[in-house]
Amino acid sequence: MDENQSILELQVDQSASRSLSDAARWARFLSIVGFVGMGLLILCLLLARAAISTALTQFAPTMAVDESYGIVVAIVVIMVAIVGALMYLLFRGATLIKRGIETKNQETFNNGLSSLRIYFSIYGVFAIVGVIANLIVLF
Amino acid sequence: MEQNQNYEDNSLFSLSIDETAKNHLRSLATWSMVIVISALIGYVLTIIKALQTKPQVVQSEGFGTSFATGGGFGGAIFGIVIGLLVNYFLFQFANHTKRGINGMNQADLDSGFYNLKIYFAIIGVLFIIVLVIAFLVILVFGLSAR
Questions:
Q1: Is B116 on the interface with A (CB under 8 A)?
Q2: Interface predicted TM-score (ipTM) over 0.90
């Protein structure tokens, strides 16, 4: 029975492992670029404080400089936290899938798939939210 | 302990798509489909928005020239074409993976993973192109500012 099951069982064969390893390499690259991008965004926010404050006072003259800058910082921090979490899940998923294939470790491979699943589910939720927001704006 | 023993036994041969992996892949495929459908709805809304925004012709005073602003229909179409290309591979991944798991078909599963690779590769190449363009823009502005 077990033998029959192993013959019929789906495998991560050579073709699948090659595709998954390449996918993991690209996913890791994307997540690293994402981390660097978020870092640069925070750096720009800190370095260009004066310029941002000036632009904001022209855009919304009734607001205090510190108040408007604080709102921008809060929005950016929330955005960085969300994107950072997504990039972490993508990086973890890619790393574990690649390691799982290299070491032929089922548990590591499954953990990698789990991280990638969470990444796609969060991405999916944001996609739905984006569509709803677009619909609200349009109608 | 028994589970670890099973993993070690499996690792002697090759990785298998066990029940846990199947569940993860099914969920991955479902969410991928949600992303693709949301993207398609988003593209339709973008086209509607672009069509609603009428281009305004701005007369440039004294020079007898005019140019169109607003609309950005060309840009929207360009974005949609790239989006469709990316999402096509995500759709193929979801479709083949689900079919491969449900029908226990190795070829479909392999094809699904191949499409996932193409999906990430296209996004990666697009990222590289955007980074190069951003770098060139910064370089040009930096040099012109001197």
A1: yes
A2: no
